[in-house]
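Why should sequence recovery work at all? Because a backbone constrains its sequence more than one might expect. Tight turns favour small or flexible residues, buried strands favour hydrophobic ones, and helices have their own preferences. The token representation captures these environments compactly. In the example below, the structure is given first.
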């Protein structure tokens, strides 16, 4: 019986030792925990060229407020080279005013006997189209893609979507053919001599060293003695400055094929549709340089938001620094159509044609897999 218990004890001890090995090191299959990255993100720049801009149309430089009839008394008449206001004297009955101004010595005519005031306006009749291509534009891009599988041993294919932002800026400047209209009102100075200082503002006075004040005001009739209108056409007095500035956002998506050149060098081809949102501000500044008075400037503006569709193709080389990061660089072509922005303000009708149908450029940046 004792021998039975001895064998039972030794058997249980052996069984316990077999179930609890103290020195055994467990092994794990690491492949069970590795997940191959399927998604990629590319962040980089796009250097674009090929956009075209053309400026055209015609405009108006409007006159000031309509002049009162030549027979009206005690009214305000505003000119580009002066101002005739209501008489500030109390009880005066001589039909003259002591409140007026002129700005240019050439307004004094007829050997100092008269003074002329002018209102100017212009109609741009130039039909020439000015072209000034914006040149290269540096922008940014972000692309997300997913690995879809392999074709053979060296080709992978993906689906991707990306967005890129680029600016557009262009301008042109030059003289334009225009018809300049002039209204001339002539006032008599009544044998009075104007002070030599120009511009002259009435009422006027001088003071001597002792502080004695002398009134030097030259009185002017409250209404002109005559009024005349004239027109002249030339390309020397009016100039235009056309300006376009904006941004366009490109959305693109589609499949891509990646060919393995060697372990860390890959060649990528892709093509697909594009959707472009283009927002631009267009302005035209018209400047008339009159015979008298300062330059007259008139500016008209318009903003435009346009959606365009098109397509793209590109070819890119990728250098994989690690399994999850790399560099890329390549070239692409993009066609996104064109559109026209039109300004219709104050009698003007100016257009600009923005052509994005033949864009090409260079793209480069970083790739990350996750």
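From this structural description, the recovered sequence reads:
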């Amino acid at each position: 019986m004792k021998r039975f218990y001895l064998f039972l004890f030794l058997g249980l001890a052996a069984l316990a030792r077999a179930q609890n090995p103290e020195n055994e090191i467990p092994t794990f299959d690491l492949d069970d925990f590795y997940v191959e990255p399927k998604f990629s993100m590319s962040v980089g720049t796009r250097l674009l060229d090929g956009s075209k801009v053309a400026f055209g149309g015609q405009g108006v430089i409007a006159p000031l407020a309509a002049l009162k009839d030549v027979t009206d008394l005690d009214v305000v008449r505003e000119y580009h080279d002066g101002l005739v206001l209501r008489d500030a004297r109390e009880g005066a009955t001589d039909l003259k005013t002591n409140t007026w101004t002129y700005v240019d010595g050439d307004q004094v005519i007829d050997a100092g006997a008269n003074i002329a005031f002018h209102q100017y306006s212009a109609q741009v009749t130039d039909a020439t189209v000015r072209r000034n291509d914006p040149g290269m534009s540096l922008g940014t891009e972000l692309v997300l893609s997913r690995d879809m599988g392999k074709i053979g041993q060296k080709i992978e294919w993906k689906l991707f979507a990306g967005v890129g932002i680029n600016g557009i800026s262009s301008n042109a400047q030059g003289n334009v053919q225009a018809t300049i209209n002039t209204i001339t009102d002539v006032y008599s100075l009544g044998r009075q001599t104007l002070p030599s200082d120009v511009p002259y503002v009435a009422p006027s006075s001088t003071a001597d060293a002792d502080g004695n004040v002398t009134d030097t005001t030259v009185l002017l009739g409250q209404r002109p003695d005559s009024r005349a209108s004239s027109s002249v056409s030339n390309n020397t007095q009016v100039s235009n400055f056309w300006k376009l500035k904006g941004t366009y956002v490109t959305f693109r998506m589609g499949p891509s094929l990646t060919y393995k050149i060697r372990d860390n060098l890959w060649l990528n081809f892709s093509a697909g549709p594009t959707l472009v949102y283009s927002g631009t501000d267009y302005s035209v500044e018209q400047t008339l340089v009159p015979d008298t008075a300062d330059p007259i400037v008139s500016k008209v503006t318009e903003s435009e938001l346009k959606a365009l569709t098109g397509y793209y193709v590109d070819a890119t080389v990728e250098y994989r620094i690690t399994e999850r990061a790399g560099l890329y660089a390549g070239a692409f072509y993009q066609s996104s159509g064109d559109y026209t922005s039109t300004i219709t303000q104050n009698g003007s009708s100016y257009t600009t044609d923005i052509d994005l149908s033949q864009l090409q450029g260079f793209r480069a940046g970083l790739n990350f897999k996750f």
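A few observations help interpret the result. The first helix runs from residue 2 to 19.
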